[in-house]
Amino acid sequence: MDYIIQTHQLTKCFVVKPEINKVNMRIKQGEIYGFLGPNGAGKTTIMKMLLNLVKPTSGEIYIQGQPIAASSYKYLKNIGSLIEHPIFYEELTAYTNLQIHCAYMGYEDQKHLMKVLDIVGLRNIEGKKVKDFSLGMRQRLAIARAIVAKPKLLILDEPINGLDPMGIKEVRELLVMLKQQYGMTILISSHIVTEMEFIADTIGVLNQGELLEEISMDVLRGKQQSLEDYYIKRIYGGEQFV
Prior knowledge:
- By secondary structure, the chain is α/β, with parallel strands linked by helices.
- The protein has a single domain (3-87, 153-241), classed as P-loop containing nucleotide triphosphate hydrolases (Rossmann fold, 3-Layer(aba) Sandwich), CATH 3.40.50.300.
- It has helices at 43-50, 94-105, 111-119, 135-147, 165-182, 193-199, 217-222, 227-236, and strands at 3-13, 18-23, 26-28, 32-36, 58-63, 66-67, 79-82, 153-157, 185-189, 202-207, 210-216.
- 34% of the residues are buried.
- The mean pLDDT is 90.
């Protein structure tokens, strides 16, 4: 089986206590992997380690079968990402921000930019500067920037933050389309468990820096168990249902 992401005993210590403790993670090529866990569980830290923004204390990371060292960077050309609070050139338009991003990514299909802005729901904003965008519009632009160069892998940290229900639905449909039409592999974290149930193929549950389980949504459906019930039981234990 082809895995686009694998980690082995991945650990990150801040001061003495491990924030990420011996995580063994496997994400299959072409799937949507939903990353669930409470605030502070370590989801963002793991995503940053996959992108080499944070260096592991110990353990190994493999992306597309290649080991990732502290100095690795060429593999990032095939990855689109949205981590925490995205930064833009505030005095420029969305289109120009995408142009700059494509320039340093070495992506030259300029005709694709307007299509991507349309896909994420940023329409009729040609002259509007990013500094005048709402939170939801900024989040849409961040997603556009992550997908504009047609990466093989998307790493999205809470991409539906700040979106209204219609925006959440549009992003959900977008991610499924990217998987189906472009074969993208998507690692996505979210606090909205029901959204993960709609789109994810596999769920990874992280708590206090430890990966409790990876489980296929097909397996959960076969057990006739909702993702929400499963998640609550894994995090808080069966006493919640007494």
